[in-house]
Amino acid sequence: MKQKYAFIIFILLSLLLSCGKSEKTYTVEIKDGVKHIHNNAPLWGEEQKINLELVRKIGGPDEKNENYMLFKPCDLEVDGDGNIYVLDGGNYRIMKYDKEWNFIKSFGQRGEGPGELRDYQLTSQLGGNKLFIIDDRYNIITVFDTDGNFLRNVRYDKFGSDFGILSTGELLTNGVRESIVENRNQGNLKEGDISLIYVKDLDGNKIREFGKAKIYTEINANSRGNFFTIAVDTNDSIYVSFMHQNRIEKYSPAGELLFRIIRDLPFMESTKIETMMRNVFSRGIYIDNKGRIWVLGLKSQTSSKVLIEELILEVYNPEGILLTRVPSEVIPSLQKLQQIHGDRVFFIDTYIQMCVYEYKIVEK
Question: Domains of the chain by range and CATH?
């Protein structure tokens, strides 16, 4: 009899231990046919299976070669062959290198004519074998081919946040502000009234729209509250990470919402426009060569301005499950994460060292 009871106790203990081990760090809920992934903790726990290893530094105050001397570099793109395009803002030019950082050419210059750059605080995007240089101060996009030949200038309305480029060369813009203007019932907005993303051609014509913006009680909060950063993978799938909402989404190239990521964070969303600036949930979203989603987020909120030392990198698998958080010490102070291409990660220090750092994703 004692042996029988001992066996039963053993089975019960085994089941309890098994349940403890299999406790999920996430749950999946289906709403309106769309997966909502609620991430409670990293799947890998405290184990660091991914890290970033410094490969090289390009530029800096000690650089003597003029082909690598950068002045206020502000953005970076990588094409399908691994060629690197550094937007050297302070010199009003684009520097092109091969994947080993051998200098190829520079193009662009300061001015107000075709192919010339007016402002030094610029951003860039690469898509459809075209390089798009965005001047958000003057609302101009300067388009080059990847050989540096000027193609055209494009006038645009301020997007309100980041934008992306499909392989077709079409623009993905934040459509919230325009959608609000187009909507005649601004005082009675409800979910679905405001489209999140507009797809436009280079003449500014809207081709289609998709996504649902969050609706706020304050009309003026709708634009700020729906600011987002955007990434497009090699299959033209579209990823959106919201700055002031606990919301990360993936869309098909046609605009179908595939899933939404929600994660546990130590701070709450703000619904008031005056406090949204202190409630920043993400600064950027990127896709690596394994389809994993990298989100640049914040560990905490501050009562005044957000400090860059609070940045963290969350890594999700292609299904939206949080795998790990890269240790904060890996993210150097005063550097901006600009690009992930394949297993290469690029940071830029615009104002202090004025250089580019290349890191490699290391799997443990």
Answer: 31-363 (2.120.10.30)
